[in-house]
Structure formats: structure tokens, C-alpha cells
Design goal:
The structure is a single chain. This protein is α/β, with parallel strands linked by helices and about 170 residues long. It has 3 helices and 7 strands, in the order ββββαββαβα. It is globular, with a radius of gyration of 19 Å. The termini are far apart.
Length: about 170
Amino acid sequence: GMVRVAAHPKNASVVLLHLKRSNPLAEVIEWDPSLAPSSIMDEAPIGKRESGGWIKACLARNWFFIGASRTGKSNELSVFFDSITSVPDALIWLIDRKGGRAARPWMPALDWCAVEIDEARVLLSVALAELRARAMLAYFGDEQLRPTIEVPAIFVVVDEANQVTSVDG
């Protein structure tokens, strides 16, 4: 079965323990293209609730997907890619030492894919240079630069970070 723990909405000292005989999310979830945001600053679907409703969040933030094998990380990444590739104010740069295997359906929509460690180093160097240039040239009094079509948000996605961070040389 499935176990979920939640705080009681009216009494913080009480915990609700939900026991399920079967996983309500075990069914295949069909993607509805109308859910895709029109800007990276809009809310986008990031998962499903037990009740069947979509969980939504603004994608313009830092993300870190972690979990054991076979727990849905690639599915979560696919939903993430679908939302980001549908908007005009965001780019995806992917580092995938497995040759882009996890992102294969999205390869035509990605803006840069590095599969070798030397390519990954170039991608990260360009990302750092872009970050520094934006920090120097795009300050208008706000803490965060708001993405536009001319200056889009850049998502650097690293699939299997260990294969990137643990390479000799």
C-alpha cells in the first residue's frame, strides 16, 4: 500500500497518517497540452495529487530531482521539459553523459545538449559567462531578472550529476 503523513490543518501538534491499500497514482497519466504555461513565470504542472488534480508551481526557480531508481525521476523530468519547451522565454541546456537517453523525446526542442565531459565544461563555462554578463548589464533595481523572449531564462539540466562531477581530469 501507500503511506502519507500530513499535519492537521487546524492543530499543528496533530499528525494525520493516511494509509492506502493501493496507489491512486499508479495509472498512466495522460498529458493535456492545454496545461502548458505561456511563460516560464506562469504556474505549470509538476505532478498529480492523490485526488487526481494537478500540482502546479512556477518553474522559474532552482530544481533538484533526486530519488531511487524506478521512482519517477525521468517522468518528472519529462513533464518539466514539456512545460519549459512550450514557452518562448526559456531555454534548456542539457548535460547528459548517457548520450541524452532520458531526454531523447525532447532532443529536437532542447537548445544545447552536451554528452561528453569536454562539451559539458564548455556548456558550463558559457552558462557562467552569461550569468556574469546578465548580472553586470541587466540590473534594474530588482533582485531577479525577469525572463523575456530576448533574454530568456536558461535551465541547465544535468542528468546523472555523478557522471559529470566525478570525472577525472
